[in-house]
Write a structure and sequence with these properties.
By secondary structure, this protein is an alpha+beta fold. It folds into 2 domains: 46 residues, no CATH class; 169 residues, Four Helix Bundle (Hemerythrin (Met), subunit A) (Up-down Bundle). It is 58% helix and 10% strand. The strands form 2 sheets. Strands 3, 4, 5 and 6 form a 4-stranded antiparallel sheet that branches. Helix 3 crosses helix 6.
Amino acid sequence: MNINIEQLKQNQKHFNEISEDQLSRNQILGYEGVCAQIYWQAVRQCLPKNIVCEKREKQGANDLFNACLNYAYGIVKHKIHHSLLKASLSPLMGFLHQMNHDQNLIYDILEILRPIIDYKMILLLKSQDWGDEYLGDGEVVETSTKLILAPQHRKIIANEIILLFQQSINTYALQNHHSTSTSTQMQLKDFIDTQCYNLAQMIINQETHTPSYFQI
């Protein structure tokens, strides 16, 4: 399967040329959809050969990778929910996600963290112990509608996410689509708190939001 890097570059170039006041929510979602399709093609190529994942399944996943992602995302969403409440933000509000349920803003914040969670789950599935346990002992239970992770598998994923929260990262602010040269070091869990706090301050003070990203 070929990854269309040129299409990604063209999308990024076009996106950078559009001023913020000209961008609509539907346009952003359109760019996101194209990039997500290419992204998941690349992710599937990184999986172990014994793990079959045809597409991203959010609910009722019947493959191991999606089941792991859904459980990991669930833990991270709980942390984001807690951070939003500490910042006096309601999870019901949303920017890109406006799905008429109580986790809109949680999903908005989660988008920043998805790649590192995906990466950690790929590494986890590539570990020899995990593969042998899954293939040999059959401790992952398949039902007619979805795959259910065994308690020991859920514990492994939970421990991995806890370690990820404690991991030190370098954060960079973005100005006009370019990162600043200086970075701030903090744990990932503190980065989530900071993102929620900064968002709250932007809303309260009616300021322009300065986005940031992180590197591990």
